[in-house]
Amino acid sequence: MARPTLYRAEYAGKALALCRLGVDKPLLARFFAVSLATLYCWLVAHPDFAAAVEAGAAEAVSPIKPTMFQCAAGYRVRVARVFLPRRRGAAPVVGYYTRRCSPTRRSRYDGYAIAALKNGVSAISSPSAFLKRQVIGQDT
Fold first, then answer.
1. How far apart are CA 128 and CA 58, in angstroms?
2. What contacts 24+ positions apart, CB below 8 Å, involve 9-18?
3. pLDDT tens digits along 69-105
4. pTM of the model
């Protein structure tokens, strides 16, 4: 007899919200405390969950959302470094390594990010309009 699944129906809504913020599948699996293979099994077995993940990923088109999430959670980036040999005429050597960028501390955009998360995706679509509303709201 197999173990019961860890999947619950409310995971679809949570996955939609997280994918709207730019969370990828490995991070989504980490959020639900399951392996990546289990997450892929859920995507196959539960069509509502798969639709929520795809819909959230489709809405996450703005470059500001993943960037804000990455700054808050930390990220890794592959970096290339070029080494020039001392011998004349020798070709430069390119070395690749992965650089880990730590999560940032509170910044001036925290108010914007928190309000965007509270108000949904519509607040993120126009950062300049939101910042103007925030300044106007503070003056009154």
1. 23
2. 9/48, 11/42, 11/49, 12/46, 12/48, 12/49, 12/51, 12/52, 13/52, 15/49, 15/52, 15/53, 15/56, 16/52, 16/53, 16/55, 16/56, 17/56, 18/56
3. 677 677 788 888 888 778 877 888 888 999 887 776 6
4. 0.46
